[in-house]
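Second opinion, please. Please look over this fold, written as tokens:

===
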Amino acid sequence: MFGFVNAHHRDANAISSKPVAAEWPPGTLVSREDIYRESKGMPPILLLRKGYEVSPTELPRFIRNGARPHQFLFKPSEDLEYKPLPQPFDTSLQTPPRHKQRVLILEPDAKNLKRLIDCLFICGIPLDRIHSVRMPEQFAWAVEKYRPHLMVVDYHLPGGKTGLELLAGFNSLYNVSKIIFTLEANASLSNLEKKAFESAASRPSIQLLKKPVSRFTVNRLLAE
């Protein structure tokens, strides 16, 4: 299953059969792209091809050999279920005009984050009303502090959790009237994720937006 090229590199090939660590839900990590180990003065060594599965217990081994966490996507077992988003989430609340809306962004990638902020600003939301965090662990604090009307959340987060799972763990979403989940252009959803997202997206105020975002797509979603 594993696309290793350097058969003599012990660390890269010593894939154990240990069970998934207790802190991880049942599932596997899937490589988002070809993953290489780079050494100064040496050609890159292919560690793992795109689309191959790895036990979460093996992630530290790949990190030691040059992989980065964002190069993996967590794929939960198909028998898991997603919790529904918390209440209250009152879409009947009157959303303020754009220049008065508060926006909270969760985007780990600095380049994608800047692009999102630029697009929101161009679409009429003042910079002082756009707030952002780059780590999922900071998001609950930011929601409590800023009480946003609009959330823009990266769907596939570092550590394997999805944006839908993150929000489902909150007790309340306060003033939120619209949620936009962003997804990498080449990323796909598992059957379980599709089912969970379709259930959540039955609310017209939940949207999925592919990256890289543009002012036109952002403006369209804001207007819906």
Q: What stands out?
A: The radius of gyration is 19 Å. Residues 98-223 form a domain with the Rossmann fold fold (CATH 3.40.50.2300). The helical segments are 10-13, 59-64, 110-122, 139-146, 163-168, 191-200, 215-223. The longest helix spans residues 110-122.
